[in-house]
Amino acid sequence: MIEVLIVDDDPMVSEINKSYLEQVDGYHLKGTASSVKEAIRFIEKNTVKLILLDIFMPETEGIQLLIKIREMQKDIDVILITAASDMRTIHKAFQFGAVDYIIKPFRFDRFEEALIKYKKQTNLLLNDSKLSQEELDHLLLKKQEKAVQEMLPKGLSKNTLREIWNYIEQKKGLDFTTEELVNTIGISRISIRKYLSFLEKIDVISSYCSYGNVGRPLTMFRSRQESARNIEPYIGDQRK
């Protein structure tokens, strides 16, 4: 049985998570906590394999528990179940080792899918048999592709995002406009703006208004090389 700790400051949500957990085979609720401090005290005294973690909690956000677990070198995995849907938070959660991310409100089937997938991966890792490179690649790529699909906002595709980012990188820090991308990529201005908005949210580009002598101000964009690695979870590390 996989021992689970539920960490959420809302008793109603905690009860829902508990009820859902009881419907999935192979899991046992070890305990609950309503704050990061309480959760830390619990894992110091008890053995758990998986934490179902909220982010928005009093005093300390749930992400700090994720970071603390890594500092303590605890063999504990974390699935985020939270209303936080901004890309920076999602990116940070995966950076610190979250194995899945469920956005509230959610349905039972999404919850069940996450736990079934986690149980399969856990059982695979406990298996002494060796994997071929092809089997490992299939496992890792399937997991990565699903994570990217869930992380990208609706209407955005990985391939188009990669094409846009390749163009931006070719600019080598020089300014560019929406119109340039429309002409180069060949999709609508509205679609380009959605991709640019996403890239700004993950902090890989910045924008400013250029005021000319006549006409309306023009929005200019440029890449932020110091944070360019933020794009890698969404398109892959192209330097490899």
* Radius of gyration, in angstroms, nearest whole number: 21 Å
**Percent of residues in helices:** 40-55%
Give me the strand/helix succession. Answer: EHEHEHEHEHHHHHEEH
Task: List low-pLDDT spans.
Answer: none
Instruction: Tell me, briefly, the overall form.
Output: elongated
Distance between the termini: 39 Å
| Strand neighbour order, sheet with most strands | 2-1-3-4-5
Count the helices. How many? Answer: 10
Subcellular location: Cytoplasm
Protein name: Response regulator
GO molecular function, one term: DNA binding
Pfam families: Response_reg
Question: What would your notes on this structure say?
Answer:
With 240 residues, the protein is of the alpha/beta class. 49% of the residues lie in helices and 16% in strands. The chain contains ten helices and seven strands. A five-stranded parallel β-sheet has the order 2-1-3-4-5, sandwiched between helices. Strands 6-7 form a two-stranded antiparallel ribbon. Strand 1, helix 1 (11-22) and strand 2 form a beta-alpha-beta unit. Helix 8 crosses helix 9. The relative contact order is 0.09. Keywords: Activator, Cytoplasm, DNA-binding, Phosphoprotein, Transcription, Transcription regulation, Two-component regulatory system.
